[in-house]
Each structure stands twice: as structure tokens, then as C-alpha cells.
User: Fold this.
Amino acid sequence: TMLNFMGCGFPAKTIRGLRKPFWDSVCRNWRHGLSCRAFSSADTGPETQKFRANHWLDNSYGLYESHIPTSTAQKMLIAASAAFSALRDPERGDQVAALGDTTAYFALHRIRDRMRGDPVGRQILRERPIVTAERLDLPRLRNLPPGTFGHQYAEFMDSRGFLTDERPRVHYVDDEELAYVMRRFRECHDFVHVLTGLDTSVESELAQKLFEFLQTGLPVCLLSASAAPVLLPRERLLTVWGVWVPWAVRAAAEARFMLSVDYEAALA
Assistant:
């Protein structure tokens, strides 16, 4: 099955129970990487150190092409505004992205440490693959045998009119390597959809956001999942709590870390 690729030996849509208490899984993922070197200057490159030394004086200094330097106060204002806009209109991907950028500081350090502790994760950080239409070659993927990861991915994208290159860019992460980690997280979203078998219904998106939160600790995932009471009537909300929350907890605990998977290699 697709989930076997990520280390889960069960179909996504048949989970009804929990093997572990909810908070055991939450705490385990949040405790991971408490020894991360988040504040060590040795953990950052010279460009990031130069930015930290200068951005208070010159706010035009950028670390990467799409970088918009901001102070902590500015990030707080952007986060508040983005959260309000995203709750009003969950389809505003740019606002969800801005919320993610401005609330991800500690989680991104933990994610990077987990990737550094995994051979595949280290390779991804070293090579920095980017998900683009040219790189993935969707026409080739469409011709792969049915049931393969590549064919399923192409079918998923085509059936929904999604574009490989349409993910919002990272703007407010003040570390060049961490900005790549955030970008990689966004670009893996559709891969995870295919591997878990989750569609793009509201319930499935909420389930995936909870799965991503439990795996990565990114606050934006939990904030997105918390929109369920606003987006769903009571009957469908009960389904989310009774079916999809238990599924997300179990899947997050049993699957491989989603940022340490070479999806591109598996597509072939």
C-alpha cells in the first residue's frame, strides 16, 4: 500500500482506534530535539550571521531571493493579520504561508535537527531538491504503470487542476537553510496526500494538517486544523473527532518523518 512507503502498514481510511494515548504522541514529537542548537552561532552560515548583525540597521538586507527581513514585532503583527485573514478565508494560501513563516522559528530548528540525524534527511539538506514541473516531468509520470507512486501523483494533480509550482514562497524565515526546510515542507504536502490516500475534502485536509503537526510541530498546522468548528457542521465535525483525529495520531507515530523521505526518487 502507499502508506507502507512511509512505514505505516495500514490503509488510511480504515483506522478507527488508537494504540497510544493522544498526548504521548504529541509530547514525544515536541520533546524531540530539545537539545537543538537553535541559538548557536556555529549552527548558522556566514550569511545568516551577517544578516543578524545588520538587519536592525538595514532592513533591505535579504538572505535569499524571496526573503523579506522583519523584526520580531513585525512578525507578530504579520502573524496576527494572517491568522485573521486565513480564518475568514481558508483558501488564502498566501496568508496561511505568512502565518507559517512567522510562527515556525523553534519548530524549524527541531525539524532541521531531525533531518540531520537521518541519512536521507542529510542528503536532502545537502542537495536541496526543488519540486518543479520540469524536474518531476509529469508527462513521464502519467505514462508510468497504474498504482505506482508516480502515476498516482500525476493523477492526483491532474484531477484537481493543481500545478506543481504553485506553492507560496517563503518570505519571513530569517535563516537561509531553515527557509529551504519550510519550502520543502510545503512542497511535500501533495506527496503526503497521495501516500496517505487523503483527498482534498475539508475533513481530509484537517486530518492531514493534524498529521503534519504531530510530525513537525509547526504551529500553523495546528492552527489550520483548529478551523474545523468553523468549517464543518456538527455531524461532520464528530466524524473528524471520531475517525480522523485517531487516524492522524496513529499515522504520525508510525510513519517515517515526512521531511526525511526522498519522494522524487520514489516517483520513478
